[in-house]
Automatic annotation (TrEMBL):
<dbReference type="GO" id="GO:0006164">
    <property type="term" value="P:purine nucleotide biosynthetic process"/>
</dbReference>
<dbReference type="GO" id="GO:0002189">
    <property type="term" value="C:ribose phosphate diphosphokinase complex"/>
</dbReference>
<keyword id="KW-0547">Nucleotide-binding</keyword>
<dbReference type="Pfam" id="PF14572">
    <property type="entry name" value="Pribosyl_synth"/>
</dbReference>
<dbReference type="GO" id="GO:0016301">
    <property type="term" value="F:kinase activity"/>
</dbReference>
<dbReference type="GO" id="GO:0006015">
    <property type="term" value="P:5-phosphoribose 1-diphosphate biosynthetic process"/>
</dbReference>
<dbReference type="GO" id="GO:0005524">
    <property type="term" value="F:ATP binding"/>
</dbReference>
<dbReference type="InterPro" id="IPR029057">
    <property type="entry name" value="PRTase-like"/>
</dbReference>
<dbReference type="InterPro" id="IPR029099">
    <property type="entry name" value="Pribosyltran_N"/>
</dbReference>
<dbReference type="GO" id="GO:0004749">
    <property type="term" value="F:ribose phosphate diphosphokinase activity"/>
</dbReference>
<keyword id="KW-0545">Nucleotide biosynthesis</keyword>
<keyword id="KW-0808">Transferase</keyword>
<dbReference type="Pfam" id="PF13793">
    <property type="entry name" value="Pribosyltran_N"/>
</dbReference>
<dbReference type="GO" id="GO:0005737">
    <property type="term" value="C:cytoplasm"/>
</dbReference>
<keyword id="KW-0418">Kinase</keyword>
<keyword id="KW-0460">Magnesium</keyword>
<keyword id="KW-0067">ATP-binding</keyword>
Amino acid sequence: MEILTGKSNPKLAEDVADILKHNIDQPVSKFEDGERRVVISSPLRRKSVFIIQPTGRPKVNARIMELYAMLDAARRESPDEITAIIPYFGYARQDRREQPGAPIMAAVVARQIFDTGADRVVTIDLHSEQSMAAVDRPWDNLYASKVLVPALIRFGINPRKTAVATPDKGGFLRAIKYAEMLGTDKIAIAYKQRDIDLSVASKALFMLGDVSGMTVIITDDILASGSTLFDAAAMMKANGAKHVFGAITHGLFLDDKKTGRTALGRLDESPIEKLFITDTLRQKGRIRHHPKIEIVSVAPLLADVIYQIHTGEHMDGRFR
């Protein structure tokens, strides 16, 4: 077995390798003109190769190109199997044609990953699982609830006084799973309307469910500008929630270009007491050290999955 990683999130890859007690190869460098260079030093012939590379901000396209280059370089060394582990899948939100003349970029990227050399893809909380249908190849989508729910319990969440909320109807199944894992049957939904343009802004409109006097955990897969989450949090508080927490898989923390507001600024102003996110994306210091943010590592989840793929063990326990 060999583990490779690019420049996207080397700390996460190193943590995975440490758990597996295995060395890691970081073969990516950069030419002066910005082009990526990949030279794999480890022998790969007849081995299982795992490439850990989130393809998220701030340099989405560069991270995707690094992944393509590592896949091609690895394939040329005749390994038994190559697994691309992509904790955050860039372009996943472009999973449908919003309007005539637009591509389905999630499908474009997925096809290229397999065409370049991947035998299998592993993702975490893919924005839309319909993206997996773009390719008829092995694709395992894992769920961050496996690490976020234990973190919430360790924090002291009391399931008997807790409701799980989703900021849109599309996250209802995720909310159900969180509720099941926490041991509560209370679920709330905040509906939103998203602008169909280049903005990442959304607006929460109304809510279903009773959260009066409850601790509310709002779950979602992605925090972009934070508008959806923070609008939902304000709505929960206005409807009588005693405490509000967030449990988000991928923290993008983007600025809202329409309003000029930052995600961290909105978090400071929001009623959310603690925001739990994972380390699928590398975060800046101001996010890592923010008093309202708790980062939970997916490294144990990924290490377990790598071990199971490598040994041939069944993976059902890692799915929702």
